[in-house]
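Aim 2 progress update. The chain analyzed this quarter is reproduced below.
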Amino acid sequence: MLDIVKRKLAIVRKRSSKFRSVIPNKVIRNLKWGEKKTLNFYKKYFCKVKYKSEFTNVYHIALQKTGTQWIQDVLLDPIVYKYSGMTVDKFGGCRRKSQAHPIRGLNEPFEKNSIVSTISGTYKNYQKDIPKNDGKNAVFFVIRDPREMVVSWYFSTKNSHIIDHGTMHHVLRNKLREKSKKEGLRYTIDLFDWKGKFEVMRSWMDKDRHKNIKIVKFEDLTQDSLTTFKNLFNFIDVRIPEDSLKELIHSYSFEVLTGRDKGKEEESSHMRKGNSKSWKKHLDGDLISLLNTKASDIIQGYCYE
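Predicted structure tokens:
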């Protein structure tokens, strides 16, 4: 029953994303916190585990604009717990100048038998800054075409992302709204460089050659969600039956969550378009040249060329 409620709430949140700028941020965060606590309580005490994953912890590493909230919604669904025995431990992050700088404040390992979602950081951050429990751990890093990330971050920061007044993100929103689209995108590319986002992406290239590390492309998650999530769940040892998996992925599809077909753009929505290659509409030659000077190795290394 709770899985149905969870999925309906996800639809309400996504289709009402334009109200994110109206409802106080503290209220939204408290609601999300309450939802997570309720779901984890229900799972532990009322949901019978049919299969237990071999992993003690799974770490979801990603940058903003790689579907982090969407993936969290899928992972939080009770059906995932039922066939893995793992709850979801949401990581709120820590304040640091760059997302490639050391992660501070993690003095104890995360709860055992949990999926930690989402940590933003380099491969070195994962190795050095996160205390681990004894047992078997896995990590997956979600990558997205840097050109798409720049465009998506620009529109969400300017229009739809939850931002507290008086914070640096509020300053950034005002700056982007004062600039033309081209200048705003140029500023975004430079900001990605300053904040270490390109460094984070670069650090995970080819790391899927290592045991218990998987690189997942955001584009694969959106274009062939069923197959990609199935492969991801196999990797982290979540054994959801085929019919239940199809129902799960359909419940969190772009079309169901937004009520729009993929490719139909709505700039004010937090789920703006739902497909790849939209960067071609917004990035001209000068901007592409600038981005290539900072991230051409990433574009080529992840085979986005």
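The first helix runs from residue 2 to 15. DSSP finds 15 helices and five strands in the chain. These observations will guide the mutagenesis experiments scheduled for the next reporting period.
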